[in-house]
Amino acid sequence: DTEVTQTPKHLVMGMTNKKSLKCEQHMGHRAMYWYKQKAKKPPELMFVYSYEKLSINESVPSRFSPECPNSSLLNLHLHALQPEDSALYLCASSPIASGSAYEQYFGPGTRLTVT
Amino acid sequence: AQSVAQPEDQVNVAEGNPLTVKCTYSVSGNPYLFWYVQYPNRGLQFLLKYITGDNLVKGSYGFEAEFNKSQTSFHLKKPSALVSDSALYFCAVRDQVNNNAGNMLTFGGGTRLMVKP
User: Fold this and answer.
1) Residue A96: CB partners within 8 Å, gap ≥ 6?
2) pLDDT at residue B53 in the model
3) Residue A4 near residue A25 (C-beta atoms within 8 A)
């Protein structure tokens, strides 16, 4: 299984709502990532989890809250978002190996619209 | 700091003609280089990577890329383009000296490839 799955595919939420994005992989990868992507732009890294611990937070606002319950799951909890947070949210995973370079496997993304 | 430049926002090519999508990079040490493709409303798909060794790397769907250390380039090529190759292409780099946990990549701005019948 070389697939990263993300749910939901589409999400529309108001600025006062609380919602969560879910990501799952069963490739045994111990690094997982959240990216935000605006139309026709490259992905912007938000968070990196290594061995289920948050290792990198790229100065993301606190209205985005990541969670890694186990080695296969990654969640992104959303609260009090702004319209400018509307974007495609991508999850990715990769093996971890110091001194090597494994490619990241990306999920199909969740298209988020904040109204 | 590491960076990637894709100098062309869009590349147009006729079906059956060869295509090149350009990428240049800047890292403090030796680079790991990647190409990804993204179809509309989809995630990124890995095409190929350069780690070390042969400068010509072959990847998925008939794509290849040539690593040129003196020109700090890693251009993506295909001998004969297909209409179905039309998509958004991203070059990415990771510095070999980056020991952060996880495989942090820096992406270029992307190049839209349009292949016309």
Assistant:
1) A29, A30, A31, A50, A51, A102, B101, B102, B103
2) 86
3) yes
* Set of chain A residues whose Cβ sits within 8 Å of the Cβ of B49: 101, 103
Chain A residues inside the 8 Å CB shell of B101: 31, 48, 50-51, 55-56, 96
Amino acid at B71: Q
Cβ pairs bridging A and B (under 8 Å)? 80
Distance CA B117, CA B115 (A): 7
Question: In the structure encoding, which two tokens stand for residue B69, read together?
Answer: 């250390």
Closest partner residue to B49 among A40, A56, A103, by Cβ? A103
Query: Using CB atoms, which residue from B43, B94, B110 is nearest to A101?
Result: B94
**Do residues B29 and B16 touch, judged by C-beta distance below 8 A?**
no
Q: pLDDT digits over B54-68, tens only? A: 999 999 999 999 999
More confident residue, B3 or B14: B14
Question: How do residues B100-112 score in pLDDT, each as one tens digit?
Answer: 555 678 999 999 9
- What would the two tokens of residue B59 be? 């990847």
At A56 the pLDDT is: 84
Q: What whole-number percentage of chain B has pLDDT above 70?
A: 92
Contact B50, B56 (CB under 8 A): no
